[in-house]
């Protein structure tokens, strides 16, 4: 059995959904579990709906949701003939679920409503794609992953309950493969034991697919993207970015950790635990080989470049010139987890600490305020964090000349430079 994940870009318009069908045809009658994201930028659009609702702008929320609704109905109309009416009825059930909620007044926390609204993107996209494939003769079964993925109620970043999810997968997914070669379900979402919808964190569909690959002991997982495979840098920023044919799990975990937007960071572990290879392939040209990620050591990797914009540097200086020892540092780490921020880089000296973080203004504000109890605090914004793995002198020089460097950390493998 194989597991495929199709991201939002791969189902963003009619031609691409049709293209997905031709990719599947080339796999003959192999058994494939398919995880699909919301179409195109739907998740962003639904986030706006949730925000408007939570700020008490009901009309605005309904108006924004109406656009999402129309867009999906249009897609369905273009793609479907025989199955249109039946599919429209299914889509309407999902629309109604959200619209009902939007008529309420927000009483619970924002993250709860976010998940109830945003989860509809994946339900809508998979419903349309599944109906289209059935109509074109690629028979498949659609399943609501909220009946399979049991999670805790940490909305917007829910954690999978593996025991229940494994049982559901064995009892409800596996038998479907006796009848169908293809099972279609949603990425990114799940449900609590009280049947509240949850999401697993933005871009979480890669991870959903990996959970299934693990539970189904898949022979491989394939992520279909609009690029040739994994590149050594973001091709939008570096036109001479190079394709990498082969990587090992650890390298990808490192890349994701430093902020490369390749694969959701949680994806690797479920695959690594069972030695399941991950393929990153291009849906625009299915015959390209793509990147293989597996456990073998890979030598001679090119420099891998990750740029993170919108960084802040917080300078902390101990107020009474006492040393920044374990206690203040420990307290600072507690603050990080309380405020839910993750330092990208940290450096300490005798009486000062410097912390580089993503610029989330409200959280940075909170952090600065709380830290000002023990420290003199100064915040610098608008910085860029450059990380290069497998660097050499030339590439480092090329990417840092003319920059003002504020912080630098270096190991034989990796160099990080915070610059302006
Ligand atoms: N649709 C979700 C997002 O855009 C999940 C995903 O695409 O992986 O974040
Ligand atoms: Mg996506």
Give short descriptive properties of this protein.
420 residues, alpha/beta, Carbamate kinase, VC0802-like, eight-stranded mixed sheet, binds aspartic acid, binds magnesium ion
Mind sketching the topology for me?
Layout: E1 2-6, H1 14-25, E2 32-36, H2 42-54, H3 58-79, H4 84-103, H5 110-118, H6 120-135, E3 140-142, H7 162-173, H8 176-179, E4 182-186, E5 189-191, E6 197-199, H9 205-215, E7 220-225, E8 246-248, H10 249-257, H11 268-272, E9 278-282, E10 291-294, E11 304-318, H12 326-339, E12 345-348, E13 352-358, H13 361-371, E14 375-389, H14 393-400, E15 405-410, E16 414-419
Parallel strand pairs: 1-2, 1-7, 2-4, 3-4, 7-9, 8-10
Antiparallel strand pairs: 5-6, 9-10, 11-13, 11-14, 12-13, 14-16, 15-16
Helix pairs in contact: 2-3, 2-5, 3-4, 3-6, 4-6, 12-13
Bound molecules: aspartic acid and magnesium ion.
Aspartic acid binds next to loops.
Explain what this protein looks like in three dimensions:
About 40% of the residues lie in helices and about 25% in strands. With about 425 residues, it is α/β, with parallel strands linked by helices. It has 2 domains: about 1-295, Carbamate kinase, CATH 3.40.1160; about 305-420, VC0802-like. An 8-stranded mixed sheet has the order 3-4-2-1-7-9-10-8, with helices on both faces. Helix 2 runs antiparallel to helix 5 (about 110-120), helix 3 (about 60-80) runs antiparallel to helix 4 (about 85-105) and helix 4 runs antiparallel to helix 6 (about 120-135). The longest helix is centred in the N-terminal third of the chain and has 22 residues, at about 60-80. It is globular, with a radius of gyration of 23 Å. The model has no long low-confidence stretch (mean pLDDT about 95). The structure holds aspartic acid (ASP) and magnesium ion. The site of magnesium ion (MG) has 4 residues, from loops.
